[in-house]
Amino acid sequence: MNRRQRLILTIAILASFVAFLDGSVINVALPAIVRELGGGLSTQQWVVDAYLITLGSLILVAGSLSDVYGRIVVLRVGLIGFGLASILCALAPNAGVLIVARAIQGIGGALLVPSSLAIILSTFRGPAQAKAIGQWTAWTSAAFIAGPLIGGLFVDFLSWRLVFAINALPIAVTLWLLFRLKQRDERETGIAIDYPGAILGVLGLGLPVFALIEQGNYGWRSPVIYLSLGLGIVAFAVFLWRERVAKQPMMPLGLFRVRNFAVGNVATALIYAALSLGGFLLAVFLQQVAGYPATFAGLATLPVTVISLLLSSTVGALAGRFGPRLFMTAGPILGGVGYLYLLGMGAHPDYWTQVLPGVILFGFGLTITVAPLTSAILGSIDQAQSGIGSAINNAVSRVAGLVATAMLGLIIGSRLDVSGFHRGLLVTALLLILGGVVSAIGIRNPAKTVPAVPPGHSAGL
Fold this sequence. Notes:
single chain, Growth Hormone, Chain: A, 0% strand, globular
């Protein structure tokens, strides 16, 4: 790897690190935000989902924007927009401003992730590309997993507002590195941006999420709720039709005719819905009900990070040797068992006996799942389609988390207590176990290549 390649890889990692860190750091800050700004559970849901709505619905069209306007330009705009939105989040005088700022952050995040991966794909080739993508994946995964601990430290010792200021330094460093790179942008010709698809995607996700979150305030009989839900479902149906007939769709539906790609994305939706739901519940419950400091609530899931860092590469190698099916089956089911173990938690749980064992089981389950899941999905399609395949899978995981968080009110009620927490744990465990069952039924291991038998030799007894 030469100096220019190292610089590009560093830029790609830092840009994505910002988006993934912000997506996970927020959970431990939610109780502190509500204490200062008010609003209860619905405010907590909106602070999470406002970000995921724009991120999940625009991450696909962002790939086309990179092709039309240039990857470096889009990356720079995403960084600046994300940074300004982060400052607005930190200074928000009320919950409404914070929620709008989080939506703007999601737009910036949608520009960052595809663009950062695209500059890796255009810079590296062959084994070097696989290694670069592996490093990018490792760092972004570490950001997502370590976020709760970092957020807890800021909330307890500084302020929840400074959780958003975490982004300032990596954004500034990335912009400086882009200036040093001085790379001329490459723009594709003949690429059309699917603006109608993007608008339909935002409406198809945003309106149902609004209905699910606000039904506790308005009631299901309110026109505000049932019209939002109905129009959102129609918009999403039209979005799917648009992607089927568009000349240059941002989500080529033909990819879903590939068995492992389709089944893998169904498993992704179930597993990542569980991750978002379980992560939200555990971080908030440990603080609001159990009385843990934010730092300790973040530390509670640190074993997941340690297990992932120690075993991810080994699991990836084993999955490459034996195929992804066994790992995608056993991993989610083991993670579900971990959440079932947490049902022993009461209002004042002992961490060492009632929390840690479940977290460790979940950590092993997650580590066994992630690398094989990615390998099964991207390995099932042509390498030329790996960029859009990765973007679709990323969007599926974000949308799954968005919907799961929006349904919190239906699962736990208007406030989080022990019984609501237990219902949430059961739903989380069920989603994970279903993810394993779907993988067991639908995933197929790649056929092993049989070496040719030299002439004059027997193939076997």
